[in-house]
Specification:
heterodimer; A: alpha/beta; seven-stranded mixed sheet; B: 439 residues; Rossmann fold; 2 domains; five-stranded parallel sheet; 17 helices; 22 strands; globular
């Protein structure tokens, strides 16, 4: 692990502490910080931070965001008009940038830190572009970060599945993770992106993929198995088939049923909880069916992908969906098919309050939050920037904590939503403890990050201290202090100090048994040399290995 | 004899990473797998080396760096330019320096494929990595480009002869079409050559798009080519399993400029109603694609970026190198890894000669000959390691195969940044340590 320069010790006194992982729910408690860690007691002189009247939480963790990848940068290159909406001047010690829906890298780090977030996960990197992803992550300061490898349409993987060579499949996946310093495995529209290379998509889990003769179900099950065999700290992370299409809830539930008994994280579930018959006129919410399933199955975690009204940029490996969105909106369209591995698509988008579909999408996200009983298994995300930029997290928190505000919003959006959604009847309000779970403790647990998402002794000293404002949006958009590794990086909502942050990667032991075979496959089908594929640790600005566990040792939600 | 395999070539945007280099006594003796351009790049790495000097007089590298920092610290509207023949980390440092001093920063895309970047900003881009061309493409169209001479191994590694997953017979599985205003050595690679009138590209793409959309046009010829031939081409495109249109400066630097590419990309997008049809510019002298990438992730914009107001602004025509210089606006220039004087229009070259000019380059060039300060650098991919981007945005590691007596571009820029920071402490003053709220 690369050490960030450490500074002095702090005693954070008098604040109400929300540390759900340690069962602390708003009691006043002193948090001591020294050498970048939370400690029982500072050994020497410590600066006192008076947090009286303030709320103290672990630093926020974003389990699913798109901030650094070849596709994210293609989106920046595609949208000069987006950047002009927000220019961020350079300040001494800090870099300039732009940033509306696709912030430049330095600005991305500053904006996350200014919300009290200290760890983020880039949710999609193609293996061949992961060197690029790490170079961008190196330029995202302050926060710790990791990336998930796009695996759900990998042609070598499909060959191993077809041949029934599961041991080789596991070695291949392990080789990719360890060579590329990745954190987890991502599946995007499994099988569907391969079909898109012929201009097609998949309809369901048992469609056969052209040429490879395997099904999405086989891909999903193989990767879930390999993920657990390798003992990766995070479960497989799935963007299910049929994203965004009315009536897709059936496929989503089928995906979950195919994984019963295995850990699974379902990404941006809002986009996958739709009823209807495929057309937009019959578009309905099936958030309740999804929530019921999640409530009954402790092996499942989800992030929401909450819609935020206004500008968005849709960026996803789900090429066929992006083509549909391009035809639907007539907006400009980028697509890139990536050899052997995956694809990507980008379409600018605007979510409008008065558009029925957008407004119902907004309501579906909130239903998901409010109908899933266990906050430990539902996490805050906007699938940034697909359903809106992450800078609106405080607004989403206010919607969750403030039922009258929600009711007011409901009156503003398209009138049909009130009759087509359960939202008007949902009176639940999230507590601060529950917010600390869905933005911190829960994601840390799902990611297997033992030193993050809590403030117990030994935890990374990533701490966010917020004013206890009645308006929860104001509260969460302007922390009084943010500590990263025990140093004050944000004061009164402004970045006052910066540091590089570390790249977190799953520490899968190197296993080179398959390297000859992989080399032959590279020679035949890739256009780069296999020896130039792995990324050495020296190429990461800072890094920390996250241990992998024994197979099955990290099951589910239990602590 | 020291043999290094898997070496990445810095010459063009094909960025071959399979070279084998033999070194003996600090000299490169043999280069395997490279094309003639790549082989010369390595074999002649010691020819025409630049020497450190100030105002034409020999000076130490330290003195040159110090003098460069002095000029840049005082400049009011400087330009940082070039950056194609270097590697990613040096490019990153150049942007950091530009941000520090509020410079204009532009690179050689500005005078070659910038219109391609503008076209993508306008309509988007359906594209793929070159491995998809190798594995899938059964129809390859080269339009206004000459890969046989500019990107020699494109044909054998990606687009014409290689055998791939769904192209097991290689050349036999592909139809190759060449469209240009005249025959070139690339014509020989093609199954068919379509010779068009100069400056008719926009019109042709518009007509092809109309045909794809099913409109029947009452025309006998377009661009000097009978409609029958265009109808045949449209059928070929629609019937292809996986098509790709490669273009070059024959589209970007002729009448219509970025609108030519807009029309070409609309055609590729429209063809998606029938099949997969991609577009990809044949880019890259050196690592120009890497510069566009890192500039985009750090500032949001791919070229022609101005930082004089403290934040990034993008405006081709205002902040692009040829225009900034032709209007005589910049008062100092730092050129890294490119021959500005040799490649910009005459009026622009005249201005850059008239201002304090700093040139960082391994080799002598028209720019080093007129520069006030010349700082020789270790050549990226030969004597300095780093990262290079291929034309399809795939990053590859550059290796160092020989030593150089000179520092790398990255180190030179790092030291210039330190020198400027020492002279302008207000630019880098650390922010006040956060006061204790409890004290």
């Amino acid at each position: 692990m690369t050490q960030a320069p450490r500074t002095q010790a702090f005693r954070i006194r008098g604040g109400r502490v929300y540390d759900p992982a340690n069962g602390i729910d708003g009691s006043v408690k002193e948090i001591c910080v020294e050498d970048g860690r939370v400690v029982r007691e500072c050994r020497g002189a410590a600066e006192v931070i008076d947090a009286t009247g303030l709320v103290v939480m672990p630093g926020g963790i974003d389990i699913h965001t798109h901030v650094a990848s070849p596709a994210v940068n293609a989106a920046r290159a595609l949208r000069p008009e987006d950047h002009r909406a927000n220019c961020c001047p350079r300040r001494p010690g800090l870099r300039s940038g732009v940033g509306n829906t696709i912030p430049s890298t330095f600005n991305t780090g500053y904006l996350y830190a200014r919300l009290g977030y200290t760890t983020i996960m880039e949710a999609a990197t193609p293996p061949i572009g992961t060197r690029h992803t790490h170079e961008e992550l190196n330029d995202i300061p302050i926060v710790d970060k990791g990336c998930y490898l796009l695996m759900g349409n990998n042609e070598f993987l499909m060959r191993y599945i077809k041949a029934g060579e599961m041991d080789k499949l596991k070695q291949y996946v392990g080789w990719l993770v360890t060579s590329l310093k990745a954190y987890g495995l991502k599946l995007v529209n499994p099988g569907g992106v391969e079909q898109w290379k012929h201009g097609k998509d998949v309809e369901g889990l048992d469609d056969r993929i052209d040429h490879f003769d395997v099904t999405p179900r086989q891909i999903i099950q193989a990767l879930a198995w390999a993920n657990e065999e390798l003992g990766l700290p995070h479960s497989i992370h799935i963007h299910a088939n049929r994203l965004g299409i009315p009536g897709n809830c059936g496929v989503t539930l089928e995906t979950l049923r195919a994984l019963e008994g295995r850990r699974v994280h379902l990404a941006h579930v809002q986009f996958h909880s739709y009823g209807g018959d495929g057309g937009w006129s019959g578009f309905t919410s099936r958030a309740k069916d999804l929530a019921d399933y999640v409530n009954a199955h402790p092996n499942v975690t989800v992030d929401v992908g909450q819609v935020v009204f206004g500008d968005a940029t849709t960026i996803t490996a789900d090429g066929p969906w992006q083509y549909r969105l391009h035809k639907l909106t007539k907006n400009k369209w980028y697509n890139s098919d990536v050899e052997i591995e995956t694809g990507s698509g980008i379409v600018p988008y605007v979510y409008r309050e008065k558009n029925f579909v957008n407004a119902l999408q907004w309501a579906i996200g909130l239903e998901t939050f409010l109908l899933i009983d266990d906050p430990w298994r539902v996490y805050l995300s906007t699938d940034h920037p697909n359903a809106g930029p992450f800078v609106f997290y405080p607004w989403v928190i206010k919607l969750l904590m403030d039922a009258p505000f929600r009711a007011e919003m409901l009156k503003r959006v398209h009138p049909r939503v009130a009759s087509r959604s359960l939202l008007p009847g949902l009176t639940r309000e999230y507590t601060l403890n529950e917010i600390a779970i869905v933005t911190r403790a829960g994601p840390a647990r799902a990611l297997g990050l033992r030193n993050k998402g809590h403030l117990g002794v030994g935890a990374d000293a990533d701490v966010a201290i917020y004013p206890d404002a009645r308006d929860r949006e104001e509260m969460f958009e302007r922390p009084v202090y943010v500590f990263k590794d025990g140093r004050i990086v944000v004061r009164d909502g402004e970045v006052v100090e910066t540091c590089p942050g570390r790249t977190l990667y799953a520490d899968v032991p190197a296993d080179d048994r398959l390297i000859k075979e992989i080399g032959d496959l590279f020679q035949a089908y890739y256009t780069v040399e296999v020896e130039n594929f792995p990324i050495p640790l020296e190429d990461l600005a800072g890094h920390e290995a996250i241990p992998v566990g024994r197979p099955g040792a990290r099951a589910g939600e239990s602590r | 004899m020291q043999v290094t395999k898997g070496v990445t070539c810095p010459f063009c945007g094909v960025t071959c990473d399979d070279l084998e280099i033999h070194v003996e006594d600090g000299q490169i003796r043999e280069v395997k797998n490279a094309c003639v351009l790549g082989r010369d790049t390595f074999l002649h790495h010691l020819k025409g080396l630049a020497t450190p000097r100030i105002d034409g007089k020999p000076a130490s590298v330290d003195a040159c760096i110090d003098a460069a920092a002095d000029i840049l610290a005082r400049a009011r509207y400087p330009l940082i330019y070039g950056l194609d023949s270097t590697e990613l980390h040096a490019q990153r440092k150049a942007i950091e320096l530009a941000d520090l001093i509020g410079a204009n920063i532009d690179h050689t895309s500005s005078i070659c494929h910038a219109p391609s970047l503008q076209a993508v900003q306008t309509v988007g881009l359906p594209t793929c990595t070159m491995g998809e061309v190798k594995n899938r493409a059964d129809l390859v169209i080269f339009w206004g480009c000459n890969p046989a001479e500019a990107h020699p191994r494109h044909a054998t590694r990606f687009s014409v002869t290689p055998k791939g997953m769904f192209t097991p017979q290689g050349r036999k599985d592909r139809t190759i079409i060449h469209v240009d205003v005249r025959k070139t050595p690339s014509t020989r690679m093609a199954d068919a050559f379509i010779q068009i009138k100069p400056h008719s590209d926009y019109e042709i793409f518009s007509v092809l798009t109309a045909l794809v959309k099913g409109h029947d046009l009452d025309l006998s010829e377009v661009g000097g080519v009978p409609m029958e031939e265009w109808r045949r081409l449209v059928s070929l495109m629609k019937d292809a399993d996986y098509g790709i249109l490669h273009w070059g400066m024959g589209l970007t630097m002729t009448r219509g400029k970025y609108l030519n590419i807009v029309a070409a990309l609309r055609l590729c997008q429209e063809l998606h109603r029938f099949t997969k049809f991609q577009g990809a510019p044949l880019r890259g002298h050196g690592n120009v694609v890497g510069m566009a990438q890192v500039l985009t992730w750090q500032t949001g914009f791919p070229f022609a970026v101005n930082l004089s107001r403290g934040y990034p602004r993008f405006n081709p025509g205002e902040f692009s190198v040829a225009d900034l210089l032709a209007r005589g606006e910049v008062d100092a220039a730092l050129v890294i890894g490119a021959d500005a004087v040799g490649n910009v229009p005459k009026q622009a070259a005249e201005h850059i000669k008239s201002i304090p000019l700093i040139c960082v380059d391994p080799k002598e060039s028209e720019t080093t000959r007129v520069a006030k300060i010349v700082i020789p650098a270790a050549q990226a991919a030969v004597a300095a390691a780093g990262v290079a981007y291929r034309m399809d945005h795939i990053p590859l590691p550059m290796k160092k195969v020989v030593d150089s007596p000179y520092p790398s571009d990255r180190e030179i820029l790092d030291r210039i940044i330190a020198g400027v920071s020492a002279r302008r402490p207000e630019l880098v003053r650390r922010m006040r340590p956060a006061a204790s709220a409890g004290a």
